[in-house]
Amino acid sequence: MPGAFxxxxxxxxxxxxxxxxxxxxGDNVANVNTPGxxxxxxxxxxxxxxxxxxxxxxxxQGSGVTVDSVNRVRxxxxxxxxxxxxxxxxxxxxxxxxxxQVASVLNDTNGTGIGxxxxxxxxxxxxxxxxxxxxxxxxAVQQAGLNLTQDVQSAASQLNxxxxxxxxxxxxxxxxxxxLAKQIAGLNSQIVQAQATGESPNSxxxxxxxxxxxxxxxVNIQTNTNSDGSVSVNVSQxxxxxxxxxxxxxxxxxxxxxxxxxxxxxxxxTGGQLSGLFQSINAIQGDQTQLDTIANTLTTQVNxxxxxxxxxxxxxxxxxxxxxxxxxxxxxxxSTVAAxxxxxxxxxxxxSGDGSLALKISNLQSSTTLPGLGGQxxxxxxxxxxxxxxxxxxxxxxxxxxxxxxxxxxxxxxSTTSGVDLDTQMADMLKYQQSYSVAARxxxxxxxxxxxxxxxxxxx
Amino acid sequence: xxxxxxxxxxxxxxxxxAAALAMQNAQEEVSTxxxxxxxxxxxxxxxxxxxLQSLQNQITQYNANLAGLKSNLGAGSxxxxxxxxxxxxxxxxxxxxxxxxxxxxxxxxxxxxISSIEQSLVGLANTxxxxxxxxxxxxxxxxxxxxxxxxxxxxxxxxxxxxxxxGPGTTIPSNVDISGTMTTLxxxxxxxxxDIQSGSTANISKTDLANIQSDINSxxxxxxxVGVTLDRVSQLTSENTTRLNxxxxxxxxxxxxxxxxAASQLQLAQNTYQAALSASSIGLNLGxxxxxxxxxx
Lengths: 460, 297
Fold this sequence. Notes:
heterodimer; A: alpha+beta; 4-stranded antiparallel β-sheet; B: 297 residues; mainly alpha; two-stranded antiparallel ribbon; 4 strands; 70% helix
């Protein structure tokens, strides 16, 4: 026999369920802009039915609705895809950013850069060789040498600064990796505790998903979900986070090898911003080496000739560039030449009309046999450097755009599954509001019925 | 399909940013008149342009060298022409002196004229170029190369060339070596002078006239050679000028924006940006919440 108050009980469960559904919808609306928030959904099922015998037959009657759980709608597959895409995005973000800055330093597009300086330097020697008597031509050689050395030095010092910046970014990235690892380990233990008591720690899970995605942007990671609900994180076989907590990610690194950690226990970094930073540092290093080659070649070759010179006043053995300079950073005129343009010899005989030496120096410009330049002229070698810097910056910029499109696409897919759509939430809210109203109305009818019954009994 | 509100806003944001970036690039192209302002925008064109500019710089220098060469050789050539004129005068004097009917005073006047011609010739042989260098002094060109003392002429210069670079590894001397010619003709004029003074008309007609004729030939040959070089200088200069013009065009084709095209692209980018903004403002206003009753029951 069904009980007299079954209807009231049933309507009450309906009120509870609608109330909870409205709460969850409200929560979804509140978190519409929260990064990493997953839409939550209430799972309800029919409450256990009760069985009774009536008219000699077995009858079933429902007892309302039960709220089973509040679930977050999430696809583990998409999350894994997102992490991997984030690692690639991180790499391209730092590479593109840093190499774009290198391209700005060496942005020789309006004919006023080092390329022009090299031309003007050799042109000044050509003019001096062709007119060795002109004092103006000697001063022009000194001035052209000064412009060249200053511009090369300035480029070298800016590249050095960029390299320093990138190294600084490595330090802060490693420290961010450690912060996120600790955060993930902390969330792991909270999630394990919550799940052990049968709760659904949805917001903790969202936070962990977001932290993992952030971490993937910094360094290549592999994740594995353990049976207790915790997530283990590896960076190239190194256990960054396991069930025991977060391990310290090494702060020592070797950019050239693309590894962190000291010898014997190195971890190779193959993705994320950290990898991009290592590659940037190496690229800047490569550009610096090429700039050094230009400076050193000029110093060696021009000095090799200038020291054989003799001015009309008999000065001999003058180095044009400072012979003690090593590389582009210290590339400068020798103190003798810097102090006095008339110490520059145009010839080797001391005759005022001997421009043979100046012409030999001018001819260095078209020489393709200078050691260290790979069979190119000095200008050609410099143009090669510019081409390489420009195309790396351009390539990584394109890669970054492509990867951003990939991220947008995955974000779209995740959004389709887990994102909050206000229109849907509004529609749901109307539905739950209606359910609540109807349940309340039912309750009031049940209450009226019961009261009528009581009145009938007491009136008898 | 469920599209999250946050994602919709992000997409709108991305679209507006992309349209704004395209407009900015188009604006930059129009305002700078250049196809690229950073080597990363077009690395291949940037390097091409750089190497063309380098070539342009070199050729500009060769033309500057050629201009210096032209004025130097021009000074030499006009000195040589004047020398020829003077030698013609000496020749006329020798012819007049050789006929044997001249008075002693006339012969003395002829000798004086020859002396003066000698002085003028030495002056011309010490001609200076635009930078003060002596055109006929070889590499020792900062002091007068010829000094006449009594009946001897001394050459203080040398016979080394002052080479001017006119192309990669190509040079043309800017000096003219007349040391041999000058020494010979000076001794010939001295001999003529002495024969006039001594009245040796036979010597004048037999030897001196022939010598002076040969000196005239040798000076005009030298001048002819300078003329050929000057022609070559002009030819090289004009070839270089043509190449410079071609290079300027090529560089402009590599570097410079087609203004009409760039302007229409800018217009297109502006329209796209405006469309993105207006589509977004319509999209952003839409939402079920706007159509729901504000108060219930």
